[in-house]
Every structure is written in structure tokens, then in C-alpha cells.
Design a protein that fits this description.
Largest sheet: none
Number of helices: 5
Number of domains: 2
Distance between the termini: 25 Å
Radius of gyration: 20 Å
Oligomer: single chain
């Protein structure tokens, strides 16, 4: 896959640069890890963008497909919208888990790890909703005044939470897999 080949080229290049500058293998491993964290965040953001498009695509396909197949009128479709959005979120979340496990955190996958990933995603979502509620409902700020900084902050927060709570680095610099 394209992302996989880009990731391998960049990580090889980063690792070779780190080994040229430092004599000991422990130093090289630490520098390689330090170089991979920003690279992992870039992949995390790219996967997030693809994830958003996937969520939108599944939501549109379900909503518009239901209108065509079941001849739903707009009122009935609005009643089903939350379920369509939930299904689209689930598809996007599963994609995000596998893609981030592979390219952002270089970890193996498993049901326990996915459960941690899903709970962390839910916590990030609830925090985001809470920020919006406080800013708009309590402080009476325009929603864009809250949304723009939130959009900048949330990827850093989500990446950090996932890195600490789900994909903890082991002592050798690789992600914890269990």
C-alpha cells in the first residue's frame, strides 16, 4: 500500500541518519524513536483525514441508499440519521484502529487493544463535546471561536492519549502489543 511504502522509506531514512550521527546502538535507538514520534503524528493526522472522509462516505451511502432502496421520506430518514451516523462512526473507528496500529504506532492488533482504543476515542469525543458545550452554552462564545482551537488541540490530545493509554512504547522503542 502507498502509506506503508512511504512509512518504510521514511523510517529507514530516519534510522540511518540516527546511526550515522551516534556511535552506540542505544543512542541510535533513542534518536530513531525521537524521530519516529513526529513521523507517527503525521501519519496519525493523515489517517484522521482519511477516516473523516470514510465516515462521511459511509454516512452518505447509508442515508442516501436508504432513501432510494426503502423510498424513505425525509422525516423518516432524519429519524434513522443517528443510527446511520453510529454505523459510519463504527466503520471509521475500526479503520482508524487498524491503520493507526499499523502506521502510526507500529503495534500488533487484538480485541483488548481495540477496546482500549475505542474507549480512548470515546473519551476524546466526550471531551470535545464538553469543550464545545462550555464554550457555546456557558460562555456564550460563537461556535467557531471554540471549534477552531479545538480542531487544532484535539489531534495532539488524541495522539497523546492513544500513545500513553493504548499503544505504550516498550523499553526497546516498539509499541506494546498486549
Amino acid at each position: 500500500m502507498i502509506l506503508n511504502s512511504i512509512f518504510e522509506k521514511l523510517t529507514r531514512r530516519s534510522a540511518s541518519r540516527a546511526r550515522i550521527r551516534f556511535v552506540g546502538p542505544e543512542d541510535a535507538r533513542q534518536v530513531e524513536f525521537a524521530l519516529l514520534v513526529p513521523l507517527a503524528f503525521v501519519f496519525f493526522c493523515l489517517i484522521g483525514a482519511v477516516n473523516t472522509l470514510l465516515h462521511l462516505g459511509v454516512l452518505a451511502a447509508l442515508s442516501e441508499g436508504a432513501a432510494l432502496v426503502f423510498a424513505m421520506d425525509s422525516a423518516l430518514r432524519e429519524d434513522w440519521q443517528k443510527w446511520f451516523n453510529g454505523a459510519a462512526f463504527l466503520v471509521a473507528n475500526v479503520f482508524s484502529y487498524f491503520a493507526n496500529s499499523r502506521w502510526s504506532f507500529r503495534a500488533e492488533t487484538g480485541p483488548t487493544l481495540y477496546l482500549k482504543f475505542a474507549m480512548t476515542s470515546l473519551a476524546g469525543f466526550l471531551f470535545s463535546v464538553g469543550i464545545m458545550h462550555v464554550g457555546v452554552e456557558i460562555l456564550n462564545w460563537h461556535y467557531l471561536v471554540v471549534f477552531i482551537p479545538q480542531t487544532i488541540l484535539m489531534p495532539f490530545l488524541n495522539f497523546s492519549l492513544l500513545r500513553v493509554l493504548v499503544f505504550r512504547p516498550a523499553n526497546d522503542g516498539s509499541a506494546k502489543t498486549k
